[in-house]
Write a structure and sequence with these properties.
Layout lengths: L14 H15 L4 E2 L8 H10 L7 H18 L6 E5 L5 H8 L9 E6 L2 H14 L8 E2 L17 E5 L9 H15 L4 E7 L4 H8 L5 H17 L8 E8 L4 E8 L3 E5 L2 E5 L4 E8 L3 H10 L3 E7 L5 E7 L1
Parallel strand pairs: 1-11, 2-3, 2-5, 3-4, 5-6
Antiparallel strand pairs: 6-13, 7-8, 8-11, 9-10, 12-13
Amino acid sequence: MNIHASARAATRSSAPAATAFAGDVMAGLTDTPKRLPPKYFYDAAGSALFEEITRLPEYYPTRSEIEILRRHGRDFASAIPDRAALVEFGAGATTKVRLLLEGGGLADRLGAYVPVDISEDFLNAQAAGLRRDFPRLSVDPVAADFTGSFDLPPSVAKLPRAGFFPGSTLGNFEPEAAGAFLRSARRLLGGGATMIIGIDLEKGPAVLEPAYDDASGVTARFNLNLLERINRELGADFDLSAFDHRAFYNGVRHRIEMHLVSRTDQAIRLLGRDIVFRAGESIHTENSYKYSVPRFRALAEAAGWKLARSWYDDAGLFSVHALTG
């Protein structure tokens, strides 16, 4: 969380995807300390749980960002050139881009909207809904992992480009990887492009920790669902009741950490191997880095961007920034 990046539905299964999942899970669970990539949270059940998380009273990022987008939609839209292709990284649901298309008046100005997401079925369903609601808007989805290399559709090759990366998903990256993503996005969008990006701000654990460990236990179910997915897709035998969800703020590293902690000494069977856990040993499933504006500015500038303008919600919990390349 940000597991709580954009919600995704289950991907269409394929041999390469299954092989990558198996390889990443085995590598993570045999590493020291144990870890699992957070991108695998978002099967169908995980995506539904994420949507539930965004509505929880403790979870402030989604409602704070939507407040900003509703209030300043025209400001964001004015930073995007006429006839541009708007590329949304990790698009998921279309709730936030709709605020720019409607409230920001972008629907009639864009050359194309290019949502990029790994979940092909969900992506195509969202694209169909946008085409229905905005019949004059060209919607050209790309099914790809936006953290890797991918090609934009040939139909947008001659259009100016802008980026949209809401949801504070950048916080899921380790700082070095965050910088690499920003450099990659700048190369994809081209010189002089604009990028609208959401960033969760630093704040104390009294606000942060409940957002990732809610009283009703939805985030715990979200975290544990990753083990359920491994059981279902890879034939493992995790006992979910033998693991506890744990989330805490690591102030030294400016990040929320999420873990699954083994209650007992135990061993699970995975792909023909025994994976041994000691009581109290954890699987590190997620980091969500929080930034001060100066630290984010430094990160963006090192990647070749300039911080042109920033917007905040009334409580000062969240921020949205316009970067120029």
